Amino acid sequence: MKKAKGVVWDLGCLYTKENDPEINKDSDSALERARSFQEQYHGKIDAGTCTPELLLAAVKEYEAIIEASYRPYAMANLLFFADGRNDTYKAMVAKVQEAMTRINNEMLFFSLEIQSVTDEKMAELLESGVLSHYKHHLESLRLFTPHMLSEKEEQVVNRKNLSGKTAFVNLFDEFTADFEWEFELDGEKNTVTQSELRELARHQDAEVRRRAKEAHDGKFGDNALIFTNIFGSLIKDHATEMEMRGYESPIQPSLLNNKVPAEVVNTMMDVTGAHNHLPQQFCRLKAKMLGLSKLKGSDLHAPVNQSGKVVPFENGKALVLESFSSFSPEFGKIIRGAFEQNWIDAEIRPGKRGGAFCYSVGPSAHPFVLMNYVDNIDSVYTMAHEFGHALHSVLACEKESLLTFHPPLVLAETASVFAEMLLTRKLLAEETDRESRVQIIASKLEDFFGTISRQTMYTRFELDTHLEGAKHRLSADDFCRLWIKHRDEMYGDTVDFLEEEKWFWSVIPHFIHSRFYCYAYTFGALFVLALFNQYEKEGEAFVPKYRALLAAGDSNWPEHLIQELGLDFSEKSFWEGGFVVIESLLNELTELVG
Ligand SMILES: [Zn+2]
User: Fold this and answer.
1) Per residue in 309-330, pLDDT tens?
2) Last residue of a domain, which of 380, 415, 430?
């Protein structure tokens, strides 16, 4: 079977067929219920007379309405993802989106009222225990309450943002989207786009990589005036808003959103910084693998002896199944069932959505996995990753409900990355070919240093620009100086960076689109490695604890969920455990490359 031909998902657990009349009926009745919900509860939640029983009835009905509206929504979207050229599906998506917006608008008052209940009243409502299932959900909704402005002020901020913050973000997107380069390859001059140039920056030939990287970053430097203005204005805007809303630090809103305490993130970043000798060691090894005396900045993403190993879908499926089963027979059984019941759409078809994802519908249906299987080891990793998500969802839906099953952001990639680690262990246990082993380990390590060490360096840079930028307007030189400082802290003297690479800060869209997001990547990856280290130490005894963590969904704060495992992520030693796994892979690579 080539390229997973015939591996198509079965949406039967949602609706029997694509034109099932129940789809429209469900959508209409959810809207009807949302209207009655509005009539019944508006003004009653933040009234002094609200009782725990009334609030419980309201949350349950709210949840049931979202659940009911979500099934037609999922059906339309999944059909569309599987065949984006079908006009009927396009129309279905437009229709369910409109219905969803109307339902959300009808019920918007509910979360606003929960946010405006006084602290004393909320404590009284929660005290009885009647609301225990939703306690964490209600508390999460209220996290931002102390930082909210008056309704009038919020409206002014929102409207002014369109010509302020949002305008700068749009300027960045539109300005960079049009970037083009003249690039000469094999004696031929061509105009290339940003993504084409980035491909060339990973070319096999070191000279092509260097020219591509120079051209790419240099163009951002040529436009430093614009980027300095965009970055500077967004930093100032953020500082003003933090002051108005009474936040302690520029990163605090993001920490609240991720539900992690500041000290934990500080500890994690300190431990990561203290292990910079590991990416440095990797860079020296990589130079050796490429036959260079030292890496240039443009060699960091150079390909290392790619094996062309063909892995047909059936073999990939067996590898994934065995990785899960070897950890826990129960996990293996769940994933076997997923294949038998066709949760996955893996074949390549025209019109099908690219990339891969796991789509969780909640307790009322099983999750769905979409991917495009191309008969190589990367595809097997993708499959393990997405089934990790699916497993997480299945376990969390056992006891949790729609509002409480979805893992908090920092734990969202736990099961997926853990599944990749299980696959890595399995592959290394079986692979005897030296070249293949080098490739498996090197590409994993490159991933880890990219998500752990490098994203921490981004966050350090971002923090500094916000702290300094709140005091005075940063010049282009200020940005470059801070960038080089943090970059050199990570890489030491193991890499000769090109002069143009000092502009790379202005390339990274996260600084523009989602302030202080990068540390969440570090968190997700290092957290899983720390868990994996625990698993290697404890063996079997770890399995039920890990299962409980996944099954807890979003029912409590991440720090409590971790405590249940007997671990404490405010401790340095917890995060250091993650580097134990990295170090052992690095040692093995050192031996192989030797
Ligand atoms: Zn994922």
Assistant:
1) 889 999 999 999 999 999 999 9
2) 430
What is the distance between the alpha carbons of residues 496 and 294, in angstroms, rounded to a whole number? 7
CA angle (543 as vertex; 542, 546 as ends), nearest 5: 85
Q: Contact 441/592 with Cβ under 8 angstroms? A: yes
For residue 304, the model assigns a pLDDT of: 82
Point out the domain boundary residue: 396, 430, 464: 430
Q: What is this structure's pTM?
A: 0.90
Rounded distance from Cα 392 to ligand 1 centre (Å): 11
What's the 352 CA to ligand 1 centre distance in angstroms?
19
> How far does residue 141's CA lie from ligand 1's centre (Å)?
24
Indicate whether 1 pLDDT > 80. no
Helix 87-116 vs helix 52-82: crossing angle, to nearest 10: 160
* Distance from the alpha carbon of residue 407 to the mean position of ligand 1, in angstroms: 12
In the DSSP assignment, the letter for residue 541 is G
Distance CA 485, CA 464 (A): 11
Reported as a single tens digit per residue, the pLDDT across 10-21 is 999 999 988 899
Distance from Cα 58 to the centre of ligand 1, integer Å: 33
> Could you read off the pLDDT of 539-556 as tens digits, one per residue?
999 999 999 999 999 999
Residue 529 in any domain: the answer is no
The Cα-based distances of 280 to 53, 170, 432, 444, 586 in angstroms read 59, 37, 27, 16, 11
CATH code of residue 32: 1.20.140.70
What order of strands is seen across the sheet that includes strand 357-359? 344-345, 368-370, 357-359
Domain of residue 334, residue span = 313-430
Give 412 Cα–ligand 1 centroid separation in angstroms.
Answer: 7
Query: How far, in Å, is the centroid of ligand 1 from the Cα of 458?
Result: 21
Work out how many domains the chain is built from and give that number. 2
| Tokens 């250091």 sit on residue | 576
Give 198 Cα–ligand 1 centroid separation in angstroms.
Answer: 23
pLDDT band at 306 (very low <50, low <70, confident <90, very high): low
Distance from residue 382's CA to the centre of ligand 1 (Å): 9
381 C-alpha to ligand 1 centroid (Å): 11
What pLDDT, on a 0 to 100 scale, did the predictor assign at position 355? 86
Looking at residue 59, what is its pLDDT?
98
Does 388 fall in a domain?
A: yes
Note the Cα 51 to chain centre separation in Å: 38
CB of 229 closer than 8 Å to CB of 211? no
How far apart, in whole angstroms, are the C-alpha atoms of residue 550 and residue 154? 37
For residue range 42-63, what is the model confidence (pLDDT) as tens digits? 999 999 899 999 999 999 999 9
Q: Ligand 1 centroid to 372 CA: how many Å?
A: 15
For 131, phi then psi, to 5°, come to -100, 15
Q: What is the pLDDT of residue 340?
A: 97
Q: Is 359 left (phi over 0), alpha (psi -120 to 50) or beta?
A: beta
Question: How does the average pLDDT of the chain come out, rounded?
Answer: 94
* Cβ neighbours of 294 (radius 10 Å): 12
CB 404 within 8 A of CB 133: yes
Euclidean distance between CA atoms 297 and 491, whole angstroms: 10
- Lowest mean pLDDT, pick from 75-84, 248-257, 421-430, 432-441: 432-441
CA angle at 131 for the pair 128 and 132, rounded to the nearest 5° = 90
The CA distance from 594 to 589, in Å, is 8
Average pLDDT estimate for 79-102 = 92
